[in-house]
Amino acid sequence: MTQGSSTILVIGASGFLGRQVVKTLLAQGHTVRCLARDPARVQDLAAAGCEVVTGDMLNAVSIQRALQGVRAVYISVHTLSPQGANLAGQAFMDVEKTGLENIVAACALHGVSRLIYVTSIGTAPDAPSQWLRGRWKTEQFLLNSGLDVTIIRPGMIVGRGGTGFDAVLAGANRPVAFGLGSGQQKMRTVAVDDLAHSLVGVLNDPRAFGQAYDVGSDDVLTMDQMIDGAAAGLGRRPPIKIHFPAALLRLFAPLIERAGKLPRGAFQGLVDSLAADMSGDPLPIRALVTRPFQSYKQAVGRVLAEAKAPR
Ligand SMILES: NC(=O)c1ccc[n+]([C@@H]2O[C@H](COP(=O)([O-])OP(=O)(O)OC[C@H]3O[C@@H](n4cnc5c(N)ncnc54)[C@H](OP(=O)(O)O)[C@@H]3O)[C@@H](O)[C@H]2O)c1
Question: Are 291 and 197 in contact (CB under 8 A)?
Fold first, then answer.
């Protein structure tokens, strides 16, 4: 830990979850530095009092600059996102691994020891998708790095701006909802503010060092159940569901990855991850974070109420 520093760095601050983590840290009185590839995307966080540094976790020099004088680092990134043009054709988990190697090297350079890394429920060496298997490896890489690492594995995050939940809401708002895979895969849900609270809750807790935690509410639901639950919250009838089978999506995956400038295998990894339920064990983290987790219904109600509230 950098002596005397109180600054917390958030990598992925422009993202759906990273942004919420920043706001929670600020609300609890922390000094926050945001790393963003495009600072224009975090102007609101700068206005809220964050220091903003421009950087990319794939650029070692920018990461070394960002870690100077910080005492802890949150990593909330999604390498399914488009990456720099020079990485076209690279496998998406190689992209994430390179980024983490840069971060660990910068931690060693600046004496930063506390790292909190967000992955997802379901990571395992024998998981059905390359994404979940790859993330199990990156988790192990960090856990064996000698740093004080905590891995946080959320379920489906319920909040406005999350890719998964926005798709649920969009489906709930239409007479016909389209979904990936069978629609029968079950996922534990977690309200975005409960998740951010958990992430900030473990920051200074040595019991969390060297640990990985699944995080979520008691609700484990299929996508179809989530869509119907959101439709009920909106006062709408449950939509008709049309599912695109995984086999069909796999056929088009290379095309979708090229068109979306996604790293190689990114979309396929997502499709394969639909094959197994993602429920995990949410109990161990509850010994550390005592605030109750909102049910899916409560979390949806909150999202809808916020959408109606005047800005
Ligand atoms: N959303 C969910 O329901 C859900 C569920 C389970 C787990 N998770 C996990 O939660 C984490 C955050 O997800 P999210 O939904 O917040 O994703 P998101 O909204 O897509 O945000 C991803 C963030 O990663 C940043 N990023 C991507 N590549 C980067 C790079 N090379 N260098 C620096 N930053 C980079 C993006 O920056 P730009 O703004 O520059 O693109 C963005 O800030 C991920 O690990 C994800 O797997 C999410």
Answer: yes
Q: What is the pTM of this model?
A: 0.94
Q: Which of 81, 132, 189 to mutate to test the pocket of ligand 1 (most atoms within 8 A of CB)?
A: 81
**CATH superfamily for domain 7-308:** NAD(P)-binding Rossmann-like Domain (3.40.50.720)
Kindly tell me if the per-residue pLDDT of 310 is higher than 80: no
Cα 263 to ligand 1 centre (Å): 14
| Residue bearing the CA closest to ligand 1, atom 36 | 12
Residue 267 has pLDDT above 90, yes or no: no
User: Relative to the CA of 120, which ligand 1 atom is closest?
Assistant: 7
